[in-house]
Every structure is written in C-alpha cells, then in structure tokens.
Design brief:
The protein is of the alpha+beta class. The protein is 23% helix and 38% strand.
C-alpha cells in the first residue's frame, strides 16, 4: 500500500466515524428542553440508546453496540483510535477517541438508583473541535411508570462553564459520589457531592495548589 493510499484510507475512517453524528454544541443547547419518551426500561444501555435516537453520535453508537454484547472491560475500534470501557456491574460506560489534534471527544455515563424508585441518569460529553473546548453533563430522571427521561438541569446550576471558569465532571465509576473540578479566578477547586438518595448534594470544596511549571516556549524566547 502506498503512502498516499494509506492517508486516503485513514481520512475515510475518520469521516465514516463521525458521519451522522450530532455536533456537541447542538446537544448542549437542546438537551435540557426535551424529555425523552418511550424509553424501554431504566437500564443504562436502553437510556443511552434512547438518547442516541434523539441526538445520534459515534460515541453513543459505540457504547450501545458494546453494551448490547454484554462486554465487560475494554473493546477497541478503528486500530485503537476508539476505546469503549464497559463496567456493567457498576452501571458505568466510557468512550474515548484521541485522534487528530483538532478533534478529540469522549463520553461517560452512569446512573443512580433513587429512593422513590426512579433513576437519575447522567451522560457527560467533552472534547475539542477546531480549538473550541466543550464539556457538559446532562442529567435526567427516569420514571419507570411512564418510561420517560425528564431533564433535571437544576442539578448542575452554579457549576456550568462560563467565559472565565471551566468545569469538568467526574461521574462515578464506583460508589455514588460526584466530583466536579473547577478552573477559574479562584484557582483549581474540587467540589465533592454526596448522594442523598435523590440527587448529589455538595458536601465539600477543596482548593488544590498547583506548582508553577516551566513553559515549553522558554527556549524560543531565548533565541529571539
């Protein structure tokens, strides 16, 4: 295979992977305004499948495909460009793709059992596309009686990225605690939320000290 043919094939893989995927900016702007009805049941795979029907992405497709196989552990696609880590016993799944520098995306999802018999479903999207960094989490209540996922955006009120502050969400792979990292005018903060039976509730905030690091462009400055 010639070098040119190899490059063409690699581009085709990338195009096929993203074909039909909804831009994350669209999902971020729409999710909290639209309940998702006709959800088969409260299993993580079926809640993700229903979300994917509304806003299809390559990440959700890969997650649902792996989960429907009942795979535990790691599965790879497209020559290790994509990894899907499924942890069925904990109700957690993670999809990553660290490909070309101009576009990097990931998705993580889990659910909590609520004391009223419902479930709290969370799906977190993050990535960089053409220099734009976007991270957001969608929370829904799943009602087993009407098979509906109802958005609960108030859970993250006060912890959404703004022009000067960024938030990153650590959905629990084990246990029930939710952690949110904040980077902004107050420095680097970690907010820990404990589960109260219905939702994550802020229990503590820690400030993390970051040591000054040398900049990689230091040598360039010396040459000028």
């Amino acid at each position: 295979m010639t070098f040119i043919t190899l490059c063409v094939n690699m581009v085709a893989i990338g195009q096929n992977m993203f074909k039909g995927s909804t831009d994350l900016e669209v999902i971020a702007g729409e999710w909290e305004h639209k309940p998702l009805r006709n959800v088969t049941d409260g299993s993580l795979v079926n809640m993700l499948d229903r979300f994917n029907q509304e806003w299809p992405t390559w990440m959700l497709r890969a997650a649902v495909k792996t989960m429907k196989k009942g795979v535990a552990g790691r599965e790879t696609y497209n020559d290790n460009q994509i990894s899907v880590r499924n942890v069925p016993k904990n109700g957690f799944v993670e999809v990553n793709w660290w490909g070309a520098a101009e576009r990097r995306e990931f998705m993580r999802s889990c659910y909590w059992k609520r004391s009223n018999g419902h479930r709290l479903f969370g799906v977190y999207f993050g990535g960089t596309n053409e220099g734009q960094d976007l991270h957001f989490v969608c929370f829904y209540d799943y009602d087993p009686k009407n098979h509906t996922l109802t958005p609960e955006p108030q859970i993250i009120d006060g912890f959404r990225t703004t022009e000067d502050t960024k938030f990153y969400y650590d959905l629990p792979e084990e246990g029930k605690e939710l952690r949110i990292s904040e980077f902004g005018p107050q420095g680097y903060l970690i907010h820990t939320f404990r589960w109260d039976g219905m939702k994550p509730v802020l229990s503590k905030t820690e400030k993390i000290e970051i040591e000054d690091e040398e900049h990689c462009d230091g040598d360039e400055d010396e040459d000028e």
